[in-house]
Design brief:
Number of helices of chain A: 15
CATH superfamily of the domain at 3-88 and 166-244 in chain B: P-loop containing nucleotide triphosphate hydrolases
Distance between the termini of chain A: 28 Å
Bound molecules: adenosine-5'-triphosphate, magnesium ion
Number of strands of chain A: 0
Shape of chain B: globular
Oligomer: heterodimer
């Protein structure tokens, strides 16, 4: 150690920096409350479990998009490509007699990851518009390929004869969707645990740096291309997980999993929930599905109109202002809390 | 002795415009070198060529005797070529801690670690704090960069460049836009850079240049007008003409 004039102040600064970084990744009470609530839902309201499973899978899909959009700043209009690949991989595997859910999940993630890795090189360069077009193009290509290769995918009729085995060899997928919900929630939970480490790691920070200023990111020594390839691959793998879950919990896969509306929908979910914060994806998925249900019950013909209108308003008001509003409301409801380590 | 940085016949054209014209630079290790010239002389372009942001139309670039002209930006940074930007290029949403930690992590080869939190390994944070302290940035190191006063952001520009442990550091008008009263803070920080780092300073303020530099290269219309010691340059009538002509 060199001889600092004020050893304590330097040590203080290091401790302060450490505390700051620690606080950033600390588990928040709201987070714990959320998971308790989510897992508690497994034991009540059986009739809603199918819907909850669906929401959970949508949330997982949105989380995967958040990784590239919210953290690395890669816009995509074709993320369904990886969702769909995951779904077909799991479906074809189950169809051919390998119905074990967990191993199907792993294979699906692997297939999607390979596709993500290969196509990542296409989105490395170019502005947002280029990327929108490329991701859209890749997804359309896959859609058409799946359509044409009906010997493998069942074409427009979808995959027939998918038989999913019991989860962990014990829990059969039931009609209410309780197993499906537990399974999807478990996967989402594990992925979130992993991702909250990733986003606070040097790798995660490098992604934010690339998103914020690519020129400086390079000047800092960040190998931009390598990081983007890695995150795109990871994101594709997670989207593949979501696709596989969707296949396994419904025992059905059709061309719909690769459809454009899926890519648009997941983008919408992220816009609603807020990007670059992981949990925004979950909030977005919940809000989106409930809005969809409520609106379609009220106006079966025009619910998409209302979703669209809501979206326009959301974008006009701006995410940040909405967050401030949310925070203000929370501050009102919760009594003002003093920070326990409040000594200055 | 190998030169810290050398360019041979470096040239860059933008369409019909020659922004860099047959530039030969020779910098010795630990040199304090200034690069001056009127607006549009091609100073920033030269830095962009050196660092790999732009590809030269012709010529060679050697860092410690090794040809780096074909390398990418990051590879040059890893080899010890650091820079700052004339216009702030920072991460608005990241704090100074996070910004500098990025540079330290990448330099120590841990930038790809995804399985652990930033700052949990070895002496990364000690190094981050050392760098921030050197530039008087510890006080507001926990706030997003966009909220820092402009002068502090200029200092962070240098801090993050230094955190990559460059052997050659290129400073593109580090005091640009900083109000008169705060310029001395930047100059002091530049003067206090480690002695073993070779520093190239681009600056319009002649007082600052004369105080800092041992040798000066004058660039006009992309070409080297002259190169020499501070005394030689300040007495050169051609240099005066260029600057008087400037206004
Ligand atoms: N990417 C580019 N494309 C086309 N022309 C460019 C480009 N970059 C710079 N130029 C031109 O090259 C010339 C040199 O510009 P440069 O920015 O290097 O000047 P400078 O010496 O840094 O000036 P200043 O003191 O104003 O910063 C200018 O005429 C500029 O317009
Ligand atoms: Mg310039």
């Amino acid at each position: 150690m060199t001889m600092p004039l004020l050893p304590t102040s330097r040590a203080d600064a290091v401790a302060s920096a450490k505390a700051f970084l620690g606080a950033q990744s600390r588990v928040r009470p709201l987070e714990i409350a959320f998971w308790l609530l989510a897992f508690a839902a497994l034991f009540v309201g059986r009739s809603h479990h199918l819907l909850l499973a669906e929401i959970t899978i949508l949330a997982l899909f949105a989380v995967s998009l958040d990784l590239i959009l919210g953290y690395a700043g890669i816009v995509s209009l074709g993320h369904a490509a990886f969702f769909g690949l995951g779904a077909y991989a799991a479906g074809i595997l189950a169809q051919s007699g390998h119905g074990d859910p967990l191993s199907g999940l792993v294979v699906a993630a692997g297939v999607a990851a390979v596709a993500g890795f290969v196509s990542s090189f296409l989105v490395l360069r170019g502005a947002d518009l280029t990327r929108l077009m490329i991701t859209l193009g890749v997804a359309s290509l896959l859609y058409e390929a799946a359509n044409k290769m009906d010997w493998l995918t069942g074409g427009a009729d979808g995959l027939q004869g998918i038989l999913i085995g019991p989860l962990l060899g014990r829990f059969d997928f039931d009609l209410y969707g309780t197993t499906a919900f537990a399974y999807a929630l478990g996967v989402l939970f594990v992925v979130m645990l992993a991702l909250r480490v990733v986003v606070h790691s040097p790798f995660g920070h490098a992604l934010r740096a690339i998103r914020d200023n690519r020129l400086r990111a390079r000047a800092v020594g960040i190998p931009v291309e390598r990081r983007l390839v890695a995150v795109y691959t990871l994101s594709a793998a997670i989207a593949g997980l979501a696709g596989a879950l969707s296949c396994q919990t419904t025992a059905f896969v059709s061309l719909d999993v690769l459809d454009f509306h899926r890519s648009a929908e997941v983008l919408l979910v992220l816009v609603i929930g807020g990007s670059g914060r992981l949990y925004g994806a979950i909030v977005g998925a919940v809000v989106f599905r409930f809005a969809q249900d409520v609106l379609s019950a009220m106006t079966p013909q025009y619910w998409q109109f209302w979703v669209g209108l809501g979206l326009v308003i959301l974008v006009l008001i701006g995410r940040d202002r909405l967050d401030d509003l949310g925070r203000a409301i929370v501050a009102r409801i919760l009594p003002a809390r003093r920070s326990p380590e409040g000594t200055p | 002795m190998t030169l810290a940085l050398e360019t041979i016949g470096l040239k860059k054209t933008f369409g019909g415009l020659t922004a860099t014209n047959d530039v030969h630079l020779r910098l010795e290790k630990g040199a304090r070198h200034a690069l001056i010239g009127p607006n549009g002389a091609g100073k920033t372009t030269l830095i962009n060529l050196l660092t790999g942001v732009l590809a030269p139309s012709a010529g060679q670039i050697r860092l410690d005797g090794v040809e780096i002209g074909g390398m990418g930006v990051e590879a040059r940074v890893r080899r010890g070529l650091g820079r700052t930007f004339q216009i702030n290029q920072l991460f608005p949403d990241l704090t100074p801690i996070e910004t500098v930690a990025l540079a330290v992590s990448e330099r120590s080869g841990r930038g790809g670690d995804w399985w652990r939190r930033v700052g949990t390994r070895g002496a990364v944070l000690d190094e981050v704090v050392d760098v921030l302290e050197r530039f008087g940035l510890t006080e507001r190191m926990r706030e997003p960069t966009r909220t820092l006063p402009y002068g502090k952001q200029r200092l962070l520009e240098i801090a993050v460049a230094l955190a990559t442990k460059p052997r050659v550091l290129l400073l593109d008008e580090p005091a640009a836009g900083v109000p008169e009263g705060e310029r001395h803070e930047i100059l002091e920080a530049v003067e206090a850079l480690p002695k073993d780092v070779t520093v190239v300073l681009i600056e319009h303020d002649m007082d600052m240049v004369f105080r800092f530099a041992e040798r000066i290269t004058v660039l006009v219309a992309g070409a080297v007008l002259t190169e020499g010691t501070v005394a030689e340059i300040s007495d050169d009538p051609r240099v005066r003409a260029v600057y008087l002509g400037e206004g």
